[in-house]
TrEMBL record:
Involved in a late step of protoheme IX synthesis. The lineage of its organism: Bacteria, Pseudomonadati, Pseudomonadota, Gammaproteobacteria, Vibrionales. It is found in: Cell inner membrane. The chain crosses the membrane at residues 41-62. TPR repeats lie at residues 327-360. InterPro entries: Heme_biosyn_assoc_TPR_pro, HemY_N, TPR-like_helical_dom_sf, TPR_2, TPR_rpt. This is Heme biosynthesis HemY N-terminal domain-containing protein. Residues 26-132 form the HemY N-terminal domain.
Length: 391
């Protein structure tokens, strides 16, 4: 457009000058080396305008020729890309259908012409993995890693495949290499959770759980359950040192919220008993029963050595005197009396506990106490009651 305007300006100027100086053509002499060229000014202007016109026409023709060539090449390129996309889509469907050989064949056939070859190679790796061909899988992953911006997608795929094969340490090493650059990636966090659980890496799991909750990889209930499991694992690991001081020191270092979980309170008591630190276990349970009593703690009392039974009975009798509707205290007393072969006392406390809530184990122990007193029919009826509660 600008060139056309320029041409019209030149033509207009020529017409103006020609009209203004008609009959006064002037004279132009051009000398180059030993050659001279003579012409009027009018002739020079006409030649100049003609030359510009020729240049514009040639430029137009060259552009048209180049554009036609480019469009032809582009048409073939687009055609190949569209075909590649079609084969890739078909390959994904075949992968979902379980036809892994066809899936691999389709996505690889035109992968080089795809606008995202990375996608093709990753799908081919998935297909090879599902078909059980680890060599091809690794080959396709290597090809994928050569593409631009491929690190995260390739390494996450590689780690997920190792997790599937229970190659926990290889998967962990891969994910740890990604973690500094992608600390909040939800897939990475989820894979780390699986690995830590499998390897019983409890402390890293504890540190990971808040992120999993924050980025919606866990519900609040799942986070609570995994937190309990992880701290139970850490308590068991610490108990391996066979020192009650180490266990109690670790307990003190735990968050206040965790120390209020009845399952973890009971877990510490169990670990103390497991390493034969019965005095420490007794003192801990007694203290916790006063502060935060729970069914888990009451259930542990009969597991303490007989040396503590007299003290435990006295403590429990005070509790049931003050709180007659404490079913767990009655149940614990019944178990202690059963161990001491005080059948009638055991029967009384089991009946008190069962009048407050149902329990298969208490029904079974009550049947045992009744049977020891030769109350066969009553023991049979209680046994049937216990069986009726089973799922």
């Amino acid at each position: 457009m600008i060139k056309a305007i320029l041409l019209f300006i030149i033509l207009g100027a020529g017409l103006f000058v020609g009209t203004e100086y008609s009959g006064q053509q002037g004279y132009v002499l051009i000398s180059i080396a030993n050659k001279t060229l003579e012409m009027s000014v009018t002739t020079l202007v006409i030649m100049f305008i003609a030359l510009l016109a020729v240049i514009f026409v040639l430029e137009y023709l060259v552009k048209k020729t180049l554009s036609a060539s480019f469009n032809t090449l582009n048409w073939f390129s687009v055609r190949k890309m569209r075909r590649s996309r079609r084969f890739t889509n078909e390959g994904i469907i075949k992968l979902l259908e379980g036809d892994f050989k066809q899936a691999e064949k389709k996505v690889i056939r035109w992968a080089k012409h795809h606008d995202k070859p990375l996608l093709c190679y990753l799908i081919a790796a998935e297909a090879a993995e599902s078909a059980g061909d680890s060599d091809k899988r690794d080959h396709y992953l290597n090809l994928a890693s050569e593409q631009d911006d491929a690190t995260l997608a390739v390494e996450l795929t590689r780690a997920r495949m190792w997790v599937k094969e229970n190659e926990w340490k290889k998967a962990l090493a891969t994910l740890q290499s990604l973690q500094p650059s992608y600390p909040n990636n939800p897939i990475l966090l989820s894979l780390l959770k699986q690995i830590y659980l499998a390897l019983e890496e409890w402390q890293p799991l504890i540190e990971l759980l808040p992120k999993l909750l924050k980025y919606s990889q866990l519900s609040a209930l799942e986070e609570q359950q995994l937190t309990i499991k992880a701290y139970q694992g850490m308590l068991a690991h610490t108990a391996g040192r066979q020192r009650s001081d180490d266990l109690l020191e670790y307990w003190d270092s735990m968050p206040r919220k965790a120390k209020k979980e009845p399952a973890l309170v009971a877990s510490l008591a169990q670990q103390l008993m497991a390493i034969h630190q019965d005095a420490a276990a007794y003192n801990f349970i007694s203290k916790q029963l006063k502060a935060t009593p729970s069914s888990e703690l009451y259930a542990l009392l009969p597991e303490l050595p007989s040396d503590y039974h007299a003290s435990l009975q006295a403590m429990l009798l005070k509790i049931v005197d003050k709180s007659p509707n404490n079913a767990e205290a009655h149940s614990s007393l019944g178990r202690l009396y059963l161990q001491q072969q005080h059948w009638s006392k055991a029967q009384h406390h089991f009946e008190q506990a069962l009048s407050l809530r149902s329990s298969v184990s208490d029904y079974a122990l009550l049947a045992q106490a009744l049977d020891k007193q030769n109350m066969t029919q009553a023991a049979h009826d209680v046994t049937q009651k216990a069986l009726s509660l089973l799922p």
